[in-house]
Amino acid sequence: MGSTIPCDVAIVGGGLAGGLIALALHARHPGLDVRIIEAAPHLGGDHVWSFFGSDIAQQDRWLVAPLTVHDWQGYDVAFPHLARQIDATYHSVTSERLHAVIRTTLPAPAVMLGRKVLAASATAVVLADGDRIEAGGVIDCRGPGDLSVLELGWQKFVGQELLLHAPHGTTGPRVMDATVEQIDGYRFVYCLPFAADRMFVEDTYYSDTPHVDRAALGLRIAAYAADRGWQVDSVLRTEAGVLPITLGGDFEAYWRSSGANVAKAGMRAGLFQPTTGYSLPDAVRLAVRLAERTDFSGKALAGFTHDYARAAWKQGAFYRMLSAMMFRAGDPAERWRIIERFYRLDPTLITRFYAGRSSLKDKIRILTGKPPVPVGSAIRVLRTTAWR
């Protein structure tokens, strides 16, 4: 017979979204009994999350600052007909730092690792070992709901942290190198210099399918390193992932697919940038807004997170339309032309775009001029449901 564990707020899932909420609630409400429940033996998985400085509002940076392990001033991009340096800050957070900060910040009983969840409601969590958590409110952060109700493309990748035989001589990130062979849609390589002799290299694809051939991508990373003249002594770490790129769909159906009356965050709430799939900026914003609240009942949390995610979905209509244009209006092997054209625009427009804060003037500028896709196809895409 299992035991019953009472608490004020139960966070189901110890990934990025759940971890940020736990830290924000503890910081703003230190007397609140918060529990974060994770099936794995550690929090955060095995990831590197990166973001532009402009992605996080100044008043929200207190939450992410302790988690940031790498900071750079400026980054570059490379395309067949364009090489450019962008003067903007760029930062990375790692799973290891997220785990360490949560473990040292929250009381020991608050972090429940190796605990598989069977079911969650607005006020209760049932664990596989027979224990039950009775909470004032539950927030479900366990990953995506039913993605089949959304119209999607995919950003998929394999990343490796490489220990090099000699210093690489690179001072900043290369956020996109699209001079590589275009395979399986829009392909680019992403490089982060973690130390003088350590380079994180990620082989990334904007693809029509979510399948990841880890072995093939690993070989392509090795070939890329060799082409750059980097002799690899060892691969320190490998990660792989598939992120949804939203073209359209039914938000309410997506929300209901993982429980209509349960509070949600992160991918489960549909909170990710429609054109990149990245979730860190949205995760920070929601965590801070939740910590500003005083009512943590299950009903109040469910209503608040639903309305917040619904508003974010509406704000993302322009970006879903652009995603649909990329995936539906042109040849997959020519998608790089769309991104290359985008990176010719003003740097401040680019930073606002990634932050999801494009102005009306930005939107007009992005859409004007000769499109890098067939005009007829572009018009057909504009008539689809991507704006909903």
From TrEMBL:
GO molecular function: lycopene beta cyclase activity; oxidoreductase activity, acting on paired donors, with incorporation or reduction of molecular oxygen
Pfam families xref list: Lycopene_cycl
Origin: domain of life: Bacteria
Swiss-Prot/TrEMBL GO biological process terms: carotenoid biosynthetic process
InterPro entries the UniProt entry points to: CrtY (IPR008461), FAD/NAD-bd_sf (IPR036188), Lycopene_cyclase_b/e (IPR010108)
SUPFAM superfamilies reported in the protein's UniProt record: FAD/NAD(P)-binding domain
Family statement drawn from the similarity comment of this UniProt entry: Belongs to the lycopene cyclase family.
NCBIfam families associated with the record: carotene-cycl, lycopene_cycl
Name under which the protein is recorded: Lycopene cyclase
Organism field: Sphingomonas taxi
